Each structure stands twice: as structure tokens, then as C-alpha cells.
Here is the input.
Amino acid sequence: MGKKAKGKDKLEGKKKPESKELHIRPHSGDMFMRNVNALKAAGLDAILEQLKPVPEKVVPVGKNINYRGIKNPLVATFIGFSTRKILDSLRLVHKTIRLVVIIEPDLGVFKHLLATEDISDLIEDKNVEFVLGKKGELLIPELFKKFSAPIPPLGVSRLTIITNMEIMLDPFVYKDDRKEEGTEFIKIVQAAIGQLRLSMGCPDDQFRRFEMMLENRDIMASAWNIKGLFDKFKDVPAIVLGGGPSLEDFIVEHKEGHIKNTLIIAADAVLGRLLSEGIRPHMVSRCERKLTSIFEGVRKEDTKGIYYCAYPWTPKPFFDLFEDVFYLFRQNGVCLFTEIPHGFVDGGVSAANAALEIAFMLGCSPIILSGADTCFIDGKTHVDGTQVEFNIEKSRDKWTQVKANDGKMVTTIPVWERCRREYMQATQKHRFQGKKFEIYNTSLHGAEIDGIPYKPFSDLRGVGKGADIEKLISDNRAKLDEKAVEAFKKKIIDSRAKMEEYKRAVDIAEELMNDAKRTATRETEKIINTANSIEGNAYDKIQYIIGNDANLNKLWSSVSDAIDTNFKKKLYVDNLFKTLVFDVLQLQTFLYENTVAGMINMIKNEHQRHYNYCGVTREYMLQVKHYIGEFLRVLR
Here is the structure.
């Protein structure tokens, strides 16, 4: 993926759009007002406010743009958009485009575009997305939203087409001394796609989470509901404790008596070390579903008064280790399926990330990070006394360098880098939602996190204002309504019945698909046999087959129709199917649908596309059938 102007310049070995003879466009008041009205109609008034203080940046553009090397622009992503001609010219390439993503980091360039060209139709187009004024890693959460939005009418995610992407740089902006900057933008877009794919997980792991939720159903019914605590901690400071080496700073600060009237939320891995130091956090978070030695040496009597905050798929023995439990939900199929009103805490990647999300949801401020290093510090990976749940050396070939808060370069590994980006993206998300808070990172030698400035503990002393943390928690916690628990029991019974329906539907769809394929195969063989019976040379026989192209298209389209009518149109639109089966098969659905979507530009013959569609769908249907069987096994 990656296209760049101009002429002979190359990026990643591919040819780029060409452009010559640059000119400056005149202003048009009519065009400007049409564009402004379109932005208002699209609910983008905030962009207009951001544009007001920004000076226009004039970019000379060319009259003609010629694209070379374009293969599959099903998703056309533009980095820089000084003129609509770069999109209009791409549309002349005669390739199917289903989604256009326009990234214009420079609001001055966009302001000049609004005043010189009519782009109101693009603003109004539901298949054209704008990401404006964002640079660097701050682009990633915006791209997540654009790439994962639903596609009508079936409502499947745009993730089903994003691997079929061409990324193009504005040839009038990213040239000469700005080529390297453009290359960095391409890497950020590719990183966003990579993170989205990583977030899907394998189906066995996804299904095991659902299975463990059912195994923990009694705990789900008896746990405290954290939702009652949301936004009840206004102006209450929180310290979020990760397992990095800089956690030693917090331990020293606590022992010296500087940590007062502050909510302490610790990642699971550091609980043992904290208890050994006589430090009792108010909450301990956990995300991981595996049963490990993370709480080795911790006994139930040690955890009295500490709230275990964990997701439904964490091991039951860990829940049993704590007297008080807060059940955390995420916006995924496992949690949405239950319809139980536990609070949503959409933190991921690590327990420390989840701990930060809890602090955000409770409304705390300031929020202070300690041990969120996400890098090696003096050769150490974690603070002494923690339990590490993964093999750090396994990813050695993917270790990279990032900038630390002290300005030096430090080494990180892939999972830490995901954690670092999650800290950044979570902070940005809550700021976009209008929340007011201060947040600081106390790790001087830890990796720099955009949006979370460094500040030492010595500058944060005295932030607590006398809040009674234990009372705030006890006053706002609550148990579930018994009606919700009974409704969940009924949901199990009803869902099993629905899975039986799905099983029958897939069996019927598979039979109808195979029947249509048998008919198409016989008719194709008839065409070949007729061609072989023609008297004449091989060319005459080929011409006969080519002459039956329309007939072949019709024959094999009937196979695709059987798939779409009896499988996709019946199951893809079903809410429970989307909540459970799609959730478990996220990665497989991603790969399958991207393969299917890419055929429109990559396979010239229509009948060949239909034939291949049948083959890949059959493989996907087998996986769907398997997990429907697994759901039937556990829904009891």
C-alpha cells in the first residue's frame, strides 16, 4: 500500500500519480458558502470553529493528474487533500471504490480548498470520510472510528474491506523536502490497520471468553455494579499503578506519607509487591483470561477491603480470592449478549490500561500514572516482585526505539507499544467526549505518551482534598436487580433456540449453494463439450467459449445468489448472530470479507469471481457451523 507523486518518484516500489503545470486557484464566495452549508448539514460545525483562527495556506495545484500502478482502491485513502482533482482523477481509473478516507492534517490547506473548489458533494457523501487537523499518533483513534463503521444494508463493518486499500499522498503537498513526512503518514495508516487486526484475536480465544463468562455467571449476578460509581469522584485524585520499574517511585512516595486522600487502582501484577510493602490499593484490575501465577502468595485474608475489578472471562479462582468484586464490561459480544447492566469500562490491552479507564469513568482528576513505563529502564522490564505473564524475548526481532520523557531513546516491545498507544488513545477519547481532567505520567525514563505530560511525584504532593475514598465507594456501589438476573437465565434458553435456527439455516444455505454449483458445473461442462465438438482449429473453440461469457456469468451468479439470499441476508442481519458468531469469528470474517471484496478489482471475469466466491464462502461456512455447534454445547 502506498502511492506518491510525482512522475518518477517512488515509494515502496510503486508508481505514483503524475502532475505538471501548477497554478493558484481563485477564491469563490459561492463555492465557499456551499461547502460551509454542507459541513453544517453534516454536523461538522466543530470543524468550522477550528478553521476560524487558522490562516489559509495556498497550495498551487496542477490541471491534470495521471495515476499509475493503482491495483485495488476499494478503499481509497488520501493523505493531504489540496484539490478534489486527486480523487476525481482516481475515479477515471475504472476501478471500484467503496470508501474514500481523506486525511488533511493541515487545516490551512483545507480552508483554502473550501474557498476555491466545490466539495459539497464529497462532504454529503456517506462513503467519503474526512479526518481533519490530526497529526501523528493522534490520527489512529480517528482512523479506528472511520474504518470500523458499519456498511449498509447488512451492517457489517468497514473492516471487511480495509485490506483492499490504496494510500495516496497529495502530489502537490508531499514533494521534495516533505517526502519523508508523507511516508510517515502512510506508516501511521498502516499501523492503524495492523492494530485493528491485532484486536480481533483468534476464534478459540474469543469463544473461550464467552464460555468463561457462563462459568462465572453466579459471580456476575452477585458482584457489585461499578456503574453507580461513574462520575462520582469529581476532583478526587487517582493513582494508576502499572508494573514498570518506575513503580519504585510510588512505593517510596507512599512510605514517606505523601499519598493521601487518593484513589489507588493497581494492575494485577503488582498486588503482591504492594502488599509486601504494606500498601493496600482500593482496587485491583485484571483483563487476561488465563489462569497464571499473577497472584502467587496472595491469600483471601490479604485482600479484605480491596475491590477486584475484572472482566467476565477472568478465571474464577481469582474472583474467589476477593470478598468484594466489581464486574467490568466491554463493548463486545460477550458482554453485550448478557444485557445485564454492569458498567462498561472499555479499557484494553493490559490491566494498567483497564485501571486508567476506571479512573476516567469514575471522573477522577488529576490522574497520576506510575509504573506505566512501556519500555526497558536500566535493562529491567518490571518492578521487582511482579509476576510477568508473557515471554518478552519471544518478540526480540520486533523491538523498536521510542522517545522517553527525558528526551532519550529507549527500547520497547510490541505489547508495550500497544499499551502506550492505548494510554494515549484513551486519554484522547475522553477529552473528545468533553471530560475535564488533568493527567500526568511520573516516569521520567519511561516512554513518552502523547497527551500525558511528565510530572514528578514531588510536584504532585497535596493534590488530595480530604475525600473519604472508602465511603465514596460503599455509598455508590450496588447489587444487580433480581429481575436482570432472571432475564439473563431466560436469555440463555432463548439463545439456544436461536442457535438451533442458525444451524438449520446454514445447513439449508449450504445445500442450496451446492445445488446451484452442481447445475452451473454441468452447464459449464456442456459448453466445453460443445466447443470440443466444433470442427476447426483451437482458436474457433476458444472463441465459442468466449462467446458464452454472458451465459457463464448468469450460471455462476446463481451460486452467489444462493449464498447471499440463504446465508448472508438471513444471518448477517440477525442481532444475536452479529453479537455472538461475528464476535467469535472476527478475524475469520475480516479475512473472508476482505478476500471477497477484493475480487471486484482483482479478478476481471465476472464468472470467475462468482466461482471463487463460492469456494471461499464454503470454507467460511464450515467455521460458522463449527462455532454454532460450540454455542449449542455451552448454552445450557
